[in-house]
Amino acid sequence: MIAIKERPILREGILFGIGIGIFQVILGFIASLVPPGVASWIAIIGFLLTLFVYMYVGFRITRETGALKKGAMAGALTGGIAYLVNGIVSLVATLVNLDAIRLATQATLKTPAQKAAITNQVIISSTLFTLLVLILFFGVIAGAVFAFFGGRLIDSRRRLAAMRSGRKT
What keyword terms does UniProt attach to this protein (predicted)? Predict the structure, then answer.
């Protein structure tokens, strides 16, 4: 526990990553219960809030450590953990409903030209690949980029304060 308190990147990354991951799971569950138009708005709000959290983590870590790079690293960790939490829940839901997903996919793709059979292995592989792309792209990369921008907010505030006080940076 002491090691996490001494490492702000880990502390904030894990805390906000788990929090935003659980929030995304709850939003996904709510979105599945409402009409598609409302679900779209819920997804947009969740997306914007996620980006805001990445920026906030970058802002906090850059303010605490004074290093912009550490803010971006905390954002990447936050994003990776958030989408890992979301991915684990999605994978469990896929495994629980595997046969229903396979049958629905086979019924959707049932055409005379379709020769390949949709198996459980194909469903699991595509789910894992999608989750990997989501974790890497949106979680880690977008987390780092938006945390960097959040860190730039505190960095530009410091420069502005230094210019007003007559110091050079």
Answer: Membrane, Transmembrane, Transmembrane helix
Domain that holds residue 96: 7-156
Q: Is residue 150 part of a domain?
A: yes
What pLDDT is attached to residue 2?
56
Residue 1 in domain = no
Residue 17 has pLDDT above 90, yes or no: yes
Does 130 reside within a domain?
yes
Residue 96 lies in a domain: yes
> Distance (Å, rounded) from C-alpha 34 to C-alpha 32?
6
Structure tokens at 124: 């699991």
pTM of the full structure: 0.79
Contacts of 61 (CB under 8 A, 6+ apart): 8, 9, 12, 70, 71, 73, 74, 147, 151
Number of domains in the chain: 1
Are 47 and 80 spatial neighbours (Cβ–Cβ below 8 Å)?
Answer: no
